[in-house]
Design a protein that fits this description.
The chain is an alpha/beta fold and 390 residues long. It has helices at 35-41, 63-66, 85-92, 114-127, 152-166, 205-208, 211-214, 227-234, 240-249, 284-294, 330-335, 362-367, 381-389, and strands spanning 8-10, 19-21, 74-77, 103-106, 130-133, 173-175, 178-182, 252-256, 302-306, 313-317, 320-324, 346-350, 353-354.
Length: 390
Amino acid sequence: MSLLDQKLSVRPFTTHMVVSIAPYCLSFAQQACHSNNISKHITLGNYARDTRRGCIRRPQILPSALGHAVGLRVFVLSDLHTDYSENMEWVKCLPTVRYKNDTLIVAGDVAETYNNFIVTMSALKDRFEHVLYVPGNHDLWCRQEGEIHLDSHQKLKKLLDACRGLGVETGPMVLDGLGIIPLFSWYHESFDREEEITSTHILSLEMACKDFKACKWSKELSNGDISLALYFDAMNEKNQSLIKEIQNTCSQIISFSHFVPRQELFPEKRMLFYPKLPKIIGSDCLEARIRSIHGVEGSPSACHVFGHTHFCWDSVIHGIRYVQAPLAYPRERKRRMNGGENWLPFCIYSNGKFSEKVSPCYWSDYYSTHPRTPHNTQLAPWVATFYNQT
């Protein structure tokens, strides 16, 4: 049984927060750690599950996020993973009229299969006036039988061509004075600068991360170094003149990526069931690109949207607001305390201003009052218990 199919959630002993990781690209098939084993060791919270078979009922979006909107509204969403039938139904059940004048930012990981990607993006484009997209790692997997992709380069080109055909934007644009800038990115291992966890045996990235096999790159590119991060970052260069124009003319700018631009936007590795996860989530190139757009010190009108980790997140670091609003896997929505169906897609911009904070966002809320201790290698109690019992 793959740990990809397990969302691990436990209550820590010292707080009321939910501690969770979303091992979106992990496979522990090599380890004797089956789902029935895990269920004995992990106590899941009893959360309300407001879903029905078939079409998922979608309560009204929180008034605090929307208010009385006038003019442009921009919604954000990431990690749709519509290869899961429940997620595809969620997309298809989005209202067909409510968002007809609105814009949607999709921060990657739409679907693994090309057909599901097309169905999903077509449905979103039918519902929103404008849809913007950047690719995630799952979008570039090449492992499905019957799909002809010689490598991830070809699949990337095919997805971008499909977006052009559907009217989905993958480049910068300006809407009613608001600049929106997609940023291509990939992760690199040196992004992780926290002390290594050496107190327990942890699977290698090659064994745990499905990207290493599911993505197929040319020989000069590797998941094991910075080459892929540089390759994707270079794709942004073709848009530099337009980005400069947006900087000169727009007082408010939203940039977005799939991957994580700063390690502070993720729990400390000692808190995670797979402590090596920070090595496969983010890019320093991406943060440098963001700062070149929004300024080193940032500003109240600077916002960056990201995805990939499946954590709801909303925090300000050095003057830039960072937001993640993931749909994530069905089991994750059922287990996280703020669900997903009742507030997604999240309205990040309306009435000419940015919305109120996403709430609750348990980990970013936690770090708003607790300092990070990156040199602390003592496993959190719930993680230590997990490894001791497995």
